[in-house]
C-alpha cells in the first residue's frame, strides 16, 4: 500500500487521507448549517439551511465512520445514513408546513424601487 508523506516525516495511508477529507468536509457543512440557522431571517430559510447542509454533513461523517470502522460496521452505518437522509428533510418539511399552517409569513426583502404609495411599480429597464 502506498503512503503519502506529510510535514515532519509523518506518513499517512490514502485511506487516512480520505478519512480526514471527509471529516473536514463534514465539519464544514455542519458549520455552514449552524451559521445559516443563526443568520437567516425566518423559519423557512432556517429550516432549509438546517436540513440541506446538516444532512450532507451527517452523511459525510457517517461515510468517514464507515471507512474508519471497516466493513463490519458499514452496513449499520449505511442504514443510519438512510435514516438521516429520510428524516432530516422530512422534519424540515414538517417544521415549514407547521409554520405555514400557523400563518407565519415568509420574509420578503424590501425593494428600494417600490414605495408605499404604489409608485415605482413600473418595469425597470435593463442596463
TrEMBL record:
UniProt keyword annotation of Membrane present: yes
Record's keyword annotation contains Transmembrane: yes
GO molecular function: sodium:proton antiporter activity
Residue ranges that the Swiss-Prot or TrEMBL entry lists as coiled coil: none
UniProt keyword annotations, A-Z: Membrane, Transmembrane, Transmembrane helix
Residues making up the signal peptide according to the UniProt record: none
Membrane-spanning segments: 17-41
NCBIfam families: CPA3_mnhG_phaG, PRK12674.1-2
Protein name: Monovalent cation/H(+) antiporter subunit G
Native organism: Salinirubellus salinus
Gene encoding the protein: mnhG
